[in-house]
From TrEMBL:
InterPro entries: AAA+_ATPase (IPR003593), ABC_transporter-like_ATP-bd (IPR003439), ABC_transporter_ATP-binding (IPR050763), P-loop_NTPase (IPR027417). GO terms for molecular function: ATP binding; ATP hydrolysis activity. The keyword Lyase does not apply. Keywords: Antibiotic resistance, ATP-binding, Nucleotide-binding, Transport. The keyword DNA damage does not apply. Residues 6-251 form the ABC transporter domain. SUPFAM superfamilies: P-loop containing nucleoside triphosphate hydrolases. It holds the Pfam family ABC_tran. One of its GO terms (biological process) is response to antibiotic. It comes from Streptomyces regalis. This is Methionine ABC transporter ATP-binding protein.
Amino acid sequence: MDEGFIDVKGVEKVFEVRKKAGFLKRERRQVRAVDSISFRVARGEMVGYIGPNGAGKSTTIKMLTGILTPSGGRLRVAGIDPSRERTRLAHRIGVVFGQRTTLWWDLPLIDSYKLMHRMYRIPDGRYRENLDRLVELLDLSELLDVPVRQLSLGQRMRGDIAAALLHDPEVLYLDEPTIGLDVISKAKVREFLRELNAERGTTVLLTTHDLQDIEQLCSRVMVIDHGRMMYDGPLAGLHEAGESERTLVVDLERELPPIEAPAPARVVRVEGPRQWLAFPASESAAPLVARIAAEYPLVDLSVREPDIEAVIAKMYVEQTEKTANAGNAGNAGKAVS
Ligand SMILES: Nc1ncnc2c1ncn2[C@@H]1O[C@H](COP(=O)(O)OP(=O)(O)OP(=O)(O)O)[C@@H](O)[C@H]1O
C-alpha cells in the first residue's frame, strides 16, 4: 500500500461573504470553512469523514474533486493537484452526493449511463462489463428503462452509485449515501461498498451522519468540527475519546424493579415492562445481553447507537476542559473554577 494516495497538508478554505448591514451598506466577512487540516489516506482504505452540520466536510470533498480551490496548503489525489487538473482527475475519481443526483432526471436510467459512457470515453468492452456487473450487484435490471424522476430514493441512490463507478475510478467520495434510506436499502448499499472495496481495492472517503455506516464499513474515522480536525483513528477510539454510550432497550415480560446490571452499565429509564440501560459504546453488548437473558424474563431487546453530534459535543467539552486545566496548572496560585 502506498502512503498518501490522498494527501492533504495544512489545507484551508476561506470564503468571503457579504452581509447586509443597513439600507445600502454591505459588510464583508470571512468564513473559515476548513482551517489547516492535514491527513493521508492510503490506496484501498475506507475512511469515514464525519462532523456536525457546517463543520467543513463538503468543502473538503469539493477541494478533493477540484470544484473548489484551497485558500492555502497542499492537496494531492493520486499525485494530481485537483484544482489545476480537474478534468484529468475526473477520470480517476467517482463522486456520489446523497442529496443531489448526477443522473438526467427525465431520461430512463440507462440513457444517463450511455451519456457517461461517451463523456468519460470509456472503451466499449469495459463499459459493457462494468455496466453488467453494477446492474447485477446493485439490483438495477428492472430499473434501467424507468425515468429517474420515477425512482424511489433508495433506487435512485443505487443508480447514482453505479453512475459514479462506470469509469472504474480508483477513489470514491460518498456524501451521505444512506441518507433517507430504509433499513433494507441501507444494508444493500453498505454490502455493495464492502464488496467494491474488497474486490477492486477502491479507496473510499465516506461522509455520513449515520454511525452505523462507519461502524460497518470503515476501520478509520476522521472527525472535523469548525473546520478543524478533532480526531483521526479507529471508531472505538472515538467512542472512548467522547466517552459515548450506547443504549440497550430491554422489553421484559412484566414490570420489574430496575435490572441489576454489572457496572458501568446501568438502568437510565424504566417505563412499565420496558427498561433502558446505558453502557460504554466502546464495549460489546454481548456479555450484558447474555447476563440479562439468563437472569430476567426477556421478550425483546435492541441496541441504539449514540448520536454523532452528541459524541462530538462531549469530546469538544472534554478537550476544552483539558486545555483550560493545563492552562490553570501552569498558573499556580490561581483558583481553578
Ligand atoms: N460557497 C460558500 N460561501 C460561503 N460560505 C460557505 C460556502 N460553502 C460553505 N460555506 C460555509 O462553510 C462552512 C462549512 O460548510 P460545509 O458545507 O463544508 O459543511 P458540512 O460539514 O458539509 O455541513 P453539512 O453536514 O451541513 O453538509 C459553513 O459555515 C458554510 O456556511
